[in-house]
Write a structure and sequence with these properties.
The chain is α+β, with helices and mostly antiparallel strands. It is built from 16 helices and 13 strands. Strands 1, 2, 5, 6, 7, 8, 9, 10, 11, 12 and 13 form an eleven-stranded antiparallel β-sheet that branches. The protein has a two-stranded antiparallel ribbon with strand order 3-4. A hairpin with a 6-residue loop joins β6 and β7. It is elongated and about 110 Å long. The chain starts with a helix and ends with a helix. About 10% of the residues have low confidence.
Length: about 550
């Protein structure tokens, strides 16, 4: 495949400090589908061979120790996706004791306001006990900077490295950060060597290990001794593989077609903003967290969470029927899953889809068989889940007739009874869309109130002159103004539901404005003709 693609190898970059601006999407993959996904990726990207102690390998053990304080400040800000929230970690590769460690900082920024999240890192040598110096805020930054310049780095590169190193060490000191959670997995990376425009990473044998409960010895120890036994509530094993598709498109807006086909293959289950760090903290430190990520309610994770002693973060399975009736979705805990019941790829304990679910972005009926399609089907909404109702399919594909009332006003259409919800990869939602819907509602309401004010004024002044036609004209405008207000409210609620469920398609009403506008034009035309007739009659009488 490499020969057929005519892969070009780029030059290796070895800067001391590195920054990455990527578009990253994370997916869960069933264990039995891992080989199929590997095969699909290998046809388009080569395996990035990792340098190990025994030579080159197609996968490598990856360890990451995440830092946080006793209040789990970084965990909660990352969970809330607060602007500027940080994740600090120490990463090394291989099964042996770390020698070369990457000190990494991930900063979250809101994409909808034009900013991009970024990952920055620099390398330290644990053989020289530099990790301990970073954690103690005694790292010799100035001396390292001078050494970089002597070795050929430019002044700008050295300044950027110094800024990053100082910010990280100061954050560790000021926030009193200590090793909190460790993630460990076998990572297989697919990319053309040293070309990160399209990079796919597959993490298998994923587990999270608590870094609490042992003596740090004044930060001289910052990770667990691999020879010590780990208790069952200090480790949780994730039941799925995790695939990350990272794109650096450099001005391009669309990913390569093979990437889109893979995402639409039915083998991938998109989990929006999935975080290994957040999952590990929620499961292994249940007494310290104030909130948990939405995906813990997924039916496929429940057993692994219970085995790790994190059952207290899960919804009760012994609720009575009376208790269930009080909750919209009794199989999920409070929070996002009570509003958005489509977020869990395999459903919850009340709606278990483990045996029937197919990929969240499936675009063909072959997805359930693991067949990757070579074409794109744009009727995404009807194919998100294999158990989608056939009536919903007919509606989305235009095979079912709409009602007369639904034809006039969209909020009365049977199309609104669909239970299918689009995954985030199909329809992106930004906060400003909700505000735009509110502004549109206020504009329509303003038009209705203005029309009502005009008609009320006509009624008041026409009563003094005993003008019967003016009264009829005003009475014709009054119900139209009321129709404006009712129409505005109903369309606002209808569109808000469309936005919430992210149904692909048009979110505007093509008929309502024409009908209301047509009624106003009709009344104005009749009034114009009547007044014109009165003028002609008056001139005839005068003559």
């Amino acid at each position: 495949y490499s020969t057929l693609r005519n892969d070009q190898i780029a030059e290796e970059q070895n800067e001391a400090g590195q920054s990455f601006l990527r578009s990253t999407t994370k997916y869960w993959i069933k264990t039995e589908d891992v080989s199929r996904v590997k095969y699909a990726v290998l046809k388009n990207l080569p395996v990035f061979l990792q340098k190990t102690a025994t030579g080159e390998s197609d996968s490598q053990l990856t360890n990451s120790v995440y830092l946080d304080n006793n209040q789990l400040e970084l965990y909660h800000t990352r969970l809330d996706k607060s602007p500027g929230s940080l994740a600090l970690r120490l990463r090394w590769y291989g099964a042996t004791n770390p020698s070369l460690v990457f000190v990494e900082r991930k900063t979250h920024r809101d994409k909808w306001i034009g900013e991009v999240s970024v990952k920055e890192r620099f390398m330290v040598k644990e053989t020289e006990k530099e990790v301990r110096q970073v954690l103690k805020n005694t790292y010799p930054i100035q001396a390292k900077k001078q050494k970089m310049i002597q070795e050929g780095s430019t002044q700008d590169e050295a300044d950027d490295w110094e800024c990053l190193a100082r910010e990280i060490t100061q954050a560790v000191s000021s926030k009193q950060l200590v090793p909190t959670m460790r993630t460990q997995y076998m990572r297989t990376a697919f990319q053309i060597p040293f070309d990160a425009s399209v990079r796919v990473s597959l993490d298998t044998n994923l587990c999270m290990i608590s870094e609490r409960g042992y003596d740090f010895k004044n930060m001289n120890v910052w990770h667990r001794d691999p020879n010590e036994t780990i208790a069952h509530n200090e480790i949780t094993r994730f039941p799925h593989a995790v695939l990350e598709i990272k794109l650096e498109l450099k001005g391009q807006t669309e990913p390569p077609k093979w990437v889109t086909d893979l995402m639409d293959s039915g083998l991938l289950y998109e989990v929006h903003k999935f975080s290994k760090f957040n999952h590990g903290c929620a499961v292994l430190l249940p007494e310290d967290v104030r909130s948990v990520p939405y995906w813990v309610d997924d039916a496929s994770l429940r057993q692994s969470i219970i085995e790790s002693g994190g059952g207290r973060i899960l919804v009760r399975s012994d609720m009575t029927e009376k208790e269930k009736k009080k909750i919209k979705h009794p199989g999920s805990g409070p929070g996002a899953n009570q509003i958005y019941d489509h977020l869990l790829p395999f459903g919850d304990i009340e709606n278990n889809k483990i045996a029937t679910a197919t990929g969240r972005t499936a675009s063909s009926t072959d997805a359930s068989k693991g067949i990757i399609s070579n074409h794109r089907n744009h009727n995404y909404a009807a194919q998100f889940y294999s158990e989608a109702d056939k009536d919903d399919d007919k509606m989305l594909n235009g095979e079912e007739d709409d009602t007369c009332l639904g034809w006039l006003f969209p909020f009365c259409s049977p199309y609104n009874n669909m239970y299918i919800v689009a995954p985030t990869s199909v329809q992106k939602i930004e906060p400003k869309i909700f505000f735009a819907n509110e502004r549109t509602f206020l504009h329509w309401l303003h038009a209705g109130i203005t029309l009502y004010t005009i008609s009320s004024g006509i009624l008041v002044f026409s009563a003094e002159d005993d003008a019967s036609w003016a009264q009829w004209y005003a009475m014709a405008l009054l119900p139209i103004s009321l129709g404006f207000c009712m129409y505005a409210l109903h369309v606002f609620l209808w569109r808000a539901d469309r936005i919430k469920t992210r149904i692909p398609g048009r979110w505007d009403d093509q008929r309502g404005p024409f009908i209301l506008g047509g009624l106003i034009v009709l009344v104005l035309t009749i009034n114009f003709i009547t007044k014109l007739k009165q003028i002609v009659t008056y001139e005839t009488v005068e003559l």
